[in-house]
Specification:
alpha/beta; Rossmann fold; 12 strands; 434 Repressor (Amino-terminal Domain); 11 helices; 3 domains; 36% helix; six-stranded parallel β-sheet; four-stranded parallel β-sheet; 15% strand
């Protein structure tokens, strides 16, 4: 029978292509009973000599995409990111299968259905999952890639944007426009990306010997990750805010406008990601554009290498971006 692949053999036996590859190559991680079943089925289908060393195919992989439920909605940064990731997988000849990971699943350490049913060859985790949950996933003997976050307690590859550099560049630009009193909006402990963006903002302020008032650094979401639409603003307002993401920047602008502030005439606001659908009368955002397509291509490349047998972890891969200057930020007003 011609055209038979490891994926076909795996489907007939209810295992992944990676498991088939390990069995045929004599590698560990497969029970002897399953190894013999795979060798017999491969022989019956006329696949290849089952005693010959094999490597995992670098195309035709079923790749699971896990996204935290609180990060995903029809109109969200991660919905767009997911579409770009699926396109990158398709371009490489792979298949992407998404599953949302709930808060309860992470708390109870419940494996995703994709893993319990053994329907995937590898995992890409898009958006920050808890450290205990990531540790659970990395014990499943399949390649796991972190996309748009990294976890210092887990040894796996991670692809991230240049968060600290981007936030620092935006802050330096605001300082060049005459701003000296600048705040930061974001839950700095919520994700590694927000923490890095805060540190980038803070480094720019420190380099310019500018103080950061504690009351001007505040969260944009509750402990469950739901985004705020109104904020606990300081009594004395700064002249500008660096916000950890565009969605929160837009929400902040709407809140400021409802309180009588003009953006950017009274207060400048910059975001991060370069993702934000137009809403109401909010001005187009000055932001840092994250290169999502390049991040997706890198994730797919690493998944292919890991499934082909190259298990050497490269660590954290940083993908650059660029500042985009629009109408939400301007030189400090003379009224300040």
């Amino acid at each position: 029978m011609s055209g038979i692949t490891m994926r076909d053999i795996g489907r007939q036996l209810g295992v992944s292509a990676v498991t088939v590859s390990k069995a045929l190559a004599g590698k560990s991680g497969v029970s002897e009973e399953m190894r013999q079943k795979i060798i017999r089925r491969a022989s019956e289908l006329g696949y290849v000599n089952p005693n010959a060393p094999q490597t995992t195919p670098t195309s035709g992989l079923d790749v699971g995409i896990l996204i935290p439920e609180n990060f995903f909605s029809v109109v969200s940064f991660y919905a767009t990111f997911y579409k770009q990731l699926v396109q990158a997988l398709t371009d490489a000849g792979h298949f992407g299968i998404m599953e949302l990971v709930t808060h309860d699943m992470q708390t109870a350490l419940t494996l995703p259905n994709l893993l319990r049913s053994r329907h995937v060859d590898a995992l890409i985790c898009l958006g920050q999952l808890t450290s205990p949950y990531m540790q659970l996933l990395t014990r499943q003997e399949m390649p796991v890639i972190c996309l748009d976050f990294h976890d210092p307690f887990v040894t796996t590859d991670a692809i991230v944007s240049d968060n600290a550099f981007g936030a620092a560049q935006l802050t330096y630009w605001l300082i060049e426009q005459g701003h000296r009193d600048i705040g930061f909006v974001g839950d700095i402990k919520a994700t590694s990306s927000i923490m890095e963006r805060y540190l980038g903002f803070l480094s720019a302020m420190l380099m310019k010997d500018l103080p950061v008032r504690p009351e001007c650094v505040f969260s944009d979401r509750d402990p469950e990750g739901s985004m705020f639409h109104t904020f606990q603003l300081p009594e004395k307002m700064p002249t500008a805010f660096v916000v950890n993401c565009d969605m929160s920047a837009q929400a902040l602008i709407t809140d400021l406008q409802s309180r009588g502030y003009r953006v950017p005439e009274d207060i400048s606001v910059v975001g991060f990601d370069d993702f934000c659908p137009t809403a109401g009368n909010t001005p187009p955002l000055t932001t840092f554009r994250v290169n999502c397509p390049a991040m997706c291509r890198m994730a797919v490349k690493l998944i292919g290498e890991r499934c082909a047998g190259d298990r050497k972890t490269v660590g954290r891969v940083v993908i650059g971006g660029e500042c985009v200057f629009r109408d939400s930020a301007a030189p400090v007003s003379v009224i300040h």
